[in-house]
Amino acid sequence: MSKKHPIISVVGSSGAGTSTVKSTFEQIFRREEITAVSIEGDAFHRFNRADMKAELQKHYDESDPGFSHFSYEANELVELERVFREYGETGKGKTRHYIHDETEAERHGTPPGHFTPWDDFENDSDLLFYEGLHGCVVNDEVNLAQLADLKIGVVPVINLEWTQKIHRDRASRGYSTEAVTDVILRRMHSYVNCIVPQFSETDINFQRVPVVDTSNPFIARWIPTPDESLVVIRFKNPRGIDFPYLTSMIHGSWMSRANSIVIPGNKQDLAMQLILTPLIERLVRDGRRA
Ligand SMILES: Nc1ncnc2c1ncn2[C@@H]1O[C@H](COP(=O)(O)OP(=O)(O)OP(=O)(O)O)[C@@H](O)[C@H]1O
Ligand SMILES: O=C(CO)[C@H](O)[C@H](O)COP(=O)(O)O
Fold first, then answer.
1. I need a labelling partner for 134 at 20 to 30 A (CA). Which of 84, 108, 145, 206 fits?
2. Residue ranges of the Phosphoribulokinase/uridine kinase domain (predicted)?
């Protein structure tokens, strides 16, 4: 927890939609005149693409099913914790980019499968925004959840998450369905052990649930649209959340439990803005005061 230099951590698996949610946060930052610096979780992978391939082969040869981009040891989590701590204490820190494809390569001048050099954050930011796989990890080595001030989980039900990953990796990263399926299978062990536990650390989870059949995500021709989905929003601590206000403002929403509301999928952006704006405002106000 850091009052003066707050940290927002948005966590989700690969293809869950954390980059998509980032744009909602950016709208709030712009409207509220908040200056944010940001980290993409993939920047803290331990290996570039070629080295990762060799590591995967090594683990495969040793019959180790647990190793993948999702596992702790494939990522620089101690370094990420150091950056979170440094930012919380001083408002300074550094990050880099992992380049996935040609479009990103052109933007950053680094070839796909490599990292850009480390770069310092801009000075005088109001907050640090993390989006990625591991921003709420608590394990024997690190406690990232403890260092973040607002923790959000983006967790579509798994069929939908796989559909989104397959479509995104095929459309913009040049992989075949078979290659993505193989990656999903190899990551399952660490999905369960390293990714899922974080959703008990998060303050709010947004879980998109399709209302069309996604029973075979490997042949789905398109991603279910927002109109074909509901979103379950679960608050870890519902105290202080004005549920009557939210359900009256979000047409078609209802409470499904004492700490959860369900909204139509096409209202996710509105719901995020209504829920997150006051929380972010408070973080920034307290930070500026401190
Ligand atoms: N609410 C949504 N409605 C419809 N499509 C969505 C939604 N959220 C995400 N998607 C789609 O799912 C795909 C994956 O989303 P996104 O790139 O945001 O995932 P990600 O979590 O950032 O993945 P990674 O961490 O691997 O980069 C994209 O094609 C995106 O358009
Ligand atoms: O999105 C991801 C994890 O969040 C990618 O799978 C990861 O960054 C590795 O990419 P690639 O295998 O294409 O080098």
1. 108
2. 7-215
210 CA distance to ligand 2 middle (Å)? 25
CB of 133 closer than 6 A to ligand 2? yes
User: 253 C-alpha to center of ligand 1: Å?
Assistant: 23
Residue 275 CB-density burial (10 A; 0-12 exposed, 13-18 middle, 19+ buried): buried
The CATH class of 7-285 is alpha beta
Q: What is the pLDDT of residues 198-221, one digit of tens each?
A: 999 999 999 999 999 999 999 999
Tell me the per-residue pLDDT of 227-273, one tens digit each, with 9 for 90 and over: 999 999 999 999 999 999 999 999 999 999 999 999 999 999 999 99
Counting every residue written for the chain, the total comes to 290
> Which residue puts its alpha carbon closest to atom 1 of ligand 2?
14
Instruction: Give the residues surrounding ligand 1 with Cβ less than 6 Å away.
Output: 12, 14-20, 164, 167-168, 208, 223, 226, 268
Quote the pTM value.
0.96
Q: Is 66 a residue whose pLDDT tops 90? A: no
Average pLDDT over residues 145-163: 97
| Contact indicator for 238, 259 with CB cutoff of 8 Å | yes
Whose alpha carbon is nearest atom 22 of ligand 1?
A: 19
pLDDT for residue 278: 96
Write the CA distances from 246 to 67, 116, 233, 275, integer angstroms. 42, 42, 11, 8
d(CA 248, CA 244): 6
pLDDT of res. 75: 98
Helices and strands counted in the chain (H then E): 9, 10
